[in-house]
Amino acid sequence: MAVEKERRDFLGMALGGFTALGGIAALGAMKRTWDPLPSVKAAGFTTVDLTEMQPNQLAVEKWRGKPIFVLKKTDKMKKDDRDIIVGKDRFFVAIGLCTHLGCIPAYYPDQLKFICACHGGQFDTAGRVLKSPPPIPLHIPPFKIDGTKLVLGEEGPEFKKMKAAGLTV
Ligand code: FES
Hints:
By secondary structure, this protein is α+β, with helices and mostly antiparallel strands. It is built from 3 helices and 11 strands.
């Protein structure tokens, strides 16, 4: 009789254990289903190595399907609150879409300005409007500085400070 009871207890515990394991496995599988795929997570960020940049040479990166202007400034270029300081260098970073109707302005390094071919709008090397019709400066995308890398798509302290000061648009 005692043997029979022990057997039932053992079977009960084993069944309980299997049920608990099955539940944990099911929860794990459900979580994997809900989580975004690694490719989707990675798609939200673009990392740019700033050590590769040459002064006054515009680099055009891509972030979430948008062109992103990255310009390493020379010492002679006018300082601006929208500059991003990395070590001893200053950078201008902006979404490369004209704030008038969304064309992509071209950079003219000899004139230190961006000119939009669609309606003649112009921006300086801080993305500020030099000539209308663009109503506002080029937008600064969310970014974070990670050492000498620019991470687009993440709001770091530098971006938050600019945003609070109303400098990102
Ligand atoms: S879209 Fe750039 S000036 Fe109109």
